[in-house]
Amino acid sequence: MTNQMNEHFRQLWPRGRELLRSALPKRWRGVPLIPVVRLAGVIGFSTPLKPGLTLAGLARALDRAFGMRNAKAVALVINSPGGSAVQSHLIFRRIRQLAAEKNVPVIAFVEDVAASGGYMIACAGDEIVCDPSSIVGSIGVVGSSFGFHEALNKLGITAVIGEFTTGGFAADSGMNIRMAAAAINGVASPKIATGTATAL
User: Fold this and answer.
1) Which residues have a catalytic role annotated?
2) What is the CATH classification number for the domain harbouring 123?
3) Which range, 12-16, 61-65, 115-119, is most confident?
């Protein structure tokens, strides 16, 4: 019964679409279609009340936007201070993959901020449009600590930088952190130097 209803609906849909189109005012009939995907919030960081931006959370919206027939372009509206380097890169790659598959240009619009990973996602666009007061850019890795080193030395407390491995805790002089920062910058830098965004 359900299959028959679905088949009947498929047969009626083209006729219904034409009837709806004729009901639209003439000035709206030739308007180009540009789907909009809103990307707002911290990338990868989720809380129960405010989920972050992840590829898994955006996959359906991106597929729907790039899957629309007769779309002249896809607009990305970005308002993100960044976050996870991995999720930023995954989202960037998926947008470029869909743009290449569907042969649709991508225009990134920056609202308040597109920093760090938000800027990486904006670079997936063929063009970046922003307000002169928008904060745009600053891809990198930042690490910080607190400034109680003299008090800690007097108390005999030392900081140990290291990593957890299957063999236990391996102390290190910070080399692993520098290597991680270099690896993340190595992924981000080519996106900016040879990225698709042509205008800012």
Assistant:
1) 116
2) 3.90.226.10
3) 61-65
